Amino acid sequence: MKIYLVGLPGCGKSTLGKQLSKRLNIPFIDLDMAIEQREGKAVKDIFKLKGEDYFRNVESDTLKKVSEVLPEFIIATGGGAPVFFDNMEFMNKLGQTVFLDVPAREITNRILRSNKEERPLLARLAPDELKDQIEFLRSQRINFYNLAMHKISADVIRVEDVLIKLQAPD
């Protein structure tokens, strides 16, 4: 089984991915971490030194290589991964995609409690600008996220919610 978790930064893709990995006993991959290993740099440094276009190319290539090499996994994609190239179509062909749809206010609160500097598109924003930027990103990306096979909308999404969606056709 190949499971792709998609959604905005801070929606819980990595947290839920790790939990799903334990429950289903299949490997978990954080796409950003795979990119960092490949490039030998943090995502924020790749953005700063080489720009977003370079990052998006590496992101797409890494997504495809991982997907073609491993027979099963759960992958937490970056928030922008579904938007670029044919990534969403690619993921839908190879596995099951799950859109974790968490409201902007909840994501804002989560990011403010975490290490915001690790998120290149959000790092320099003041708290009041952060929610606006998250809402803007959502408006730009929602059509791609909605192509996912499954959608879960809630402030807090539990691993059980994802397991139920994966077992039941939408």
Quick summary:
By secondary structure, the chain is α/β, with parallel strands linked by helices.
Alpha-carbon distance between the termini?
A: 17 Å
Assembly annotation? single chain
* CATH fold field value: Rossmann fold
Q: What general form does the structure show?
A: globular
Estimate the helix proportion, in percent.
55-70%
**Percentage beta strand:** 5-15%
Supply the number of structural domains: 1
Number of helices: 7
Mean pLDDT rating? 92
CATH superfamily: P-loop containing nucleotide triphosphate hydrolases
How many β-strand runs?
5
Please tell me about this protein's structure.
The protein has helices at about 15-25, 30-40, 45-70, 85-95, 105-115, 125-145, 160-165; strands spanning about 1-5, 30, 75, 95-100, 150-155. It is α/β, with parallel strands linked by helices and about 170 residues long. The chain has a single domain (about 1-160), classed as P-loop containing nucleotide triphosphate hydrolases (Rossmann fold). The protein has a five-stranded parallel sheet, with helices on both faces. Helix 2 (about 30-40) packs across helix 3, helix 3 (about 45-70) packs parallel to helix 4 (about 85-95) and helix 5 crosses helix 6 (about 125-145). The radius of gyration is 15 Å and the shape is globular. The two termini are about 15 Å apart.
